[in-house]
Every structure is written in structure tokens, then in C-alpha cells.
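Hi support team,

I've been running sequence recovery on a batch of backbones for a student project. Most finish fine, but this one hangs at about 90% for roughly twenty minutes before it completes. I'm not sure whether the input is malformed or the queue is just slow. I've pasted the C-alpha cells below so you can try to reproduce it. Let me know if you need the job ID as well.

Thanks,
M.K.
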């Protein structure tokens, strides 16, 4: 097993990022981990060492990310695998969310990811190798969750840029894998992680009910094990031709297949009308 690879993981102080970092370090890999609080990384993963580099980064600040990538290169000499894992869910209907709440979710989930890609790409291109994992969500493929529109929009954006990234990086021998996880039993839905709207409108009863279900019923009862997710990501990193699209969890497969069937049905039912727009020759 080649454990000489260096992993760069964002959002590694808790959740899937933390589980992945722990497993990698236990297997002898080198890990550069980022979080909003370096102390949290040290508390969970240990002090800086030849194999571990904890860093406090503001992913929404491009210069901060640039310095983090440079620091990693000075420490380890190279980066092989980038995991854009950091992100959070902002609940709330489109009407009730403030402009600031919506933009903050995009700043972290989308522009944070883009900042890491922008600054890591130069290094990966020079070495003509690498693998970028962008952690989206099944909510980045299926968006019909009332009260989760902005969060889903951020993850759809991650999916869109990942498809382009895969084409742009292909010539340099760099793989891109877009991961759509279902519900994993992490702290993702706990207070302090998930953000609820500051100005809720109680008339949105469906959205409120779904929000409360996530906070009180789904949280702690998610069907998927983050330990197994970490093992799956490591396995994917070993593949010579890893997939661009990777759905993770039976629930993710269920939601995705339901949408694929819906899209296929809608296209079949309306094909004559939908393709009637060409010029008459």
C-alpha cells in the first residue's frame, strides 16, 4: 500500500473530514487538515508532526487558502489528493432567508471549494498527477426538499463546476470525483453546524416540518456510517480510473434513481413538443 501520498482535507475538525483524517493517519498517510479553529484539529488529531499538519484557514479568503497550500507544500513537499469537504447546511425557504444568509452559504460551500481548487491546481498541474474530491450531497442532484433550496443550490453549483473541472484537469493526469453522500451519522445536523433562518415565516408549514424532522428525528438516526464512507474514499483514491460521479449510500441511490426516472418520464412525455423548436428547412 502506497502511503506516501499527501492528503489535503478541508473541514477536518469534525464529521466526515475528521473521520477520514483519523483513518488516513492511522494507515500512515500524510494529512494536511484545515478548520476554522486549529485547536479543534489538534485536540482531535494531535500536534503537528512529520505526518500531520493542522491549519486554521478561512476558506472564503483566497489569500488565506493560498498561504495554506504553500504551507502544505513547504511541510510535505507535495500534495496528491485534495478533499473539498468543508461546508454547512443553511435551512430556510427562499423568501425567508436574508441575502447575507444565502450568500454566506455560497461563500463557504462554493467559493471556499473554488479557492482551494484555484490554488491547488497550479501545483497539481506541474506534477501532472493528483485527485480532487469535491464533496457535494445528494441534495446537489435532487433539490425538491422544501426549506433546503439554498443549500441544494450550493451543492448543485459544486456539481456543475466539478464536471467542468474534470474536463480541464484531464489533460494533466488529474482525476476529479464528485461525491454525492446521502445521510451520514455525523454532526452535520447538530446545532452549531446546521443554520436555521433568522427570520422564519411560520406560514411555511411544510418547510418548518421538514426542518424540524432533520433537527429532531433524522439527526442521530442517519442510516450511513462515516467510518465506512472514509474507507470508501480511500478506496476510490487507489483506483486508476476513478469515477467522476459517485453516489454514496443506499438513500443517495434511491433519491438519484427517483429523479432520473422522473426526468426520463418528463422527456419521453414531452419530446415532440420539446424538440419542435428548430428552424424549418
Amino acid at each position: 500500500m502506497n502511503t506516501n501520498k499527501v492528503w489535503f482535507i478541508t473541514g477536518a475538525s469534525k464529521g466526515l473530514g475528521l473521520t477520514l483524517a483519523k483513518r488516513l493517519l492511522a494507515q500512515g498517510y500524510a494529512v494536511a487538515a484545515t478548520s476554522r479553529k486549529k485547536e479543534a484539529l489538534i485536540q482531535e488529531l494531535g500536534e503537528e508532526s512529520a505526518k500531520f499538519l493542522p491549519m486554521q484557514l478561512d476558506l472564503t479568503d483566497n489569500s488565506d487558502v493560498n498561504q495554506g497550500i504553500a504551507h502544505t507544500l513547504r511541510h510535505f513537499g507535495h500534495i496528491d489528493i485534495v478533499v473539498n469537504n468543508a461546508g454547512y447546511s443553511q435551512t430556510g425557504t427562499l423568501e425567508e432567508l436574508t441575502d447575507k444568509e444565502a450568500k454566506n452559504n455560497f461563500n463557504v460551500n462554493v467559493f471556499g471549494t473554488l479557492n482551494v481548487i484555484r490554488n491547488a491546481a497550479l501545483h497539481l498541474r506541474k506534477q501532472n498527477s493528483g485527485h480532487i474530491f469535491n464533496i457535494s450531497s445528494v441534495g446537489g442532484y435532487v433539490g425538491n426538499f422544501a426549506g433546503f433550496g439554498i443549500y441544494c443550490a450550493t451543492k448543485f453549483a459544486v456539481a456543475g463546476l466539478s464536471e467542468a473541472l474534470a474536463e480541464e484537469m484531464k489533460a494533466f493526469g488529474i482525476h476529479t470525483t464528485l461525491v454525492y453522500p446521502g445521510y451520514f451519522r455525523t454532526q452535520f445536523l447538530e446545532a452549531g453546524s446546521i443554520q436555521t433562518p433568522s427570520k422564519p415565516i411560520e406560514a411555511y408549514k411544510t418547510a418548518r416540518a421538514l426542518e424540524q424532522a432533520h433537527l429532531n428525528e433524522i439527526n442521530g438516526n442517519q442510516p450511513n456510517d462515516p467510518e465506512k464512507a472514509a474507507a470508501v474514499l480511500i478506496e476510490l483514491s487507489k483506483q486508476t480510473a476513478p469515477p467522476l460521479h459517485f453516489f454514496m449510500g443506499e438513500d443517495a441511490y434511491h433519491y438519484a434513481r427517483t429523479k432520473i426516472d422522473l426526468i426520463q418520464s418528463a422527456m419521453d412525455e414531452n419530446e415532440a413538443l420539446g424538440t419542435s423548436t428548430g428552424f424549418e428547412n
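--
Follow-up from support: It reproduced on our side and the slowdown came from queue contention, not your input. The beta strands are 6-9, 30-35, 52-56, 81-84, 130-135, 174-181, 245-248. No action needed from you.
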